[in-house]
Amino acid sequence: MIYVTGDTHIPLDIGKLNIKKFPKQKEMNHDDYVVVLGDFGLFWKNDKTYGYWKKWLEEKLFTLLWLDGNHENHEWINSLPVSQWHGGNVHQTSENIIHLMRGQLYDINGSVFLAAGGAQSYDRGFRKPYVSWWPEELWNYTQQAYMFHVLGKMREHKANVDYVLSHTCPTELIYPMFNISPKEDPDPTTDMLQDVLEYIGYNNIKDWYFGHWHQDKDYGKFHCLYNEIRRIG
């Protein structure tokens, strides 16, 4: 089983994964997955809060997969050791807590997933660099080049991405889904994801899931999740 949900902002919104709100987890094991679509929040500050919630998640029966969002300590995340998991690079900090890294492809239960975390913080002007905001929230050239390289290899072999998992969404969705002009505070990440969408092709994907916008809303194959925990497949 694979479930996806929106931002957890540990400790603010992690309660959605408790037994009462997510009873399905009683039927799960470490071969089942829950994906947090960015702004996970565990890796923020190495203090008692981190230790408490890390232990709480390690005691879950399922494996927790997460994308990085914008409100994360990217410097800490990027310092974590890299390993291989289901065909792509990950940061695996516990047996059942795994960071799906940017631009990586994973074969999970017979489907191909593209992970594309990160976004620009709208509130960055009110945050302190390397204390409550990290410029690494935006993709660098190497990350983007690698992603399009692996997508190109898939195209050569006439293979497709089944699901895209991202923190924010392609630019063309911002106005129809959220009634916000993307010109108000342009985010290079949404423009890059627009390029990903056009490269892969809308008709070739099954679904695209993202968080960031703190809403539960569907628009064709695009699904913004926040409080909802939705099963894939």
Question: Do you know the CATH topology?
Answer: Purple Acid Phosphatase, chain A, domain 2
Mean pLDDT: 96
The general outline is: globular
In the CATH scheme, the class would be: Alpha Beta
Q: Strands across the major sheet, in which order?
A: 4-5-6-3-2-1-13
Distance between the termini: 8 Å
Q: Roughly what fraction of the amino acids lie in strands?
A: 15-25%
Poorly predicted residue ranges: none
Overall tally of domains? 1
Tell me the Rg in angstroms. 17 Å
Q: Tell me the CATH architecture.
A: 4-Layer Sandwich
User: Percent range for helical residues?
Assistant: 10-25%
Q: What is the chains' assembly state?
A: single chain
Please tally the helical runs, counting DSSP H or I stretches of 4 or more residues. Answer: 5
Biggest beta sheet summary:
7 strands, mixed
- The assigned structural class equals alpha/beta
What is the ordering of alpha helices and beta strands?
EEHEHEEEEEHEHHEEEE
Q: Number of DSSP strands?
A: 13
Summarize the structure.
The chain has 233 residues and is α/β, with parallel strands linked by helices.
Account of the 3D structure:
The protein has 233 residues and is of the alpha/beta class. It has one domain: Purple Acid Phosphatase, chain A, domain 2 (4-Layer Sandwich). Helix content is 21%, strand content 23%. The protein is built from five helices and 13 strands. It has a seven-stranded mixed β-sheet. A six-stranded mixed β-sheet has the order 7-8-9-10-12-11, with no helix packed on it. Helix 3 (141-156) links the parallel strand 8 and strand 9 (163-166). The longest helix has 16 residues, at 141-156. The termini are close together.
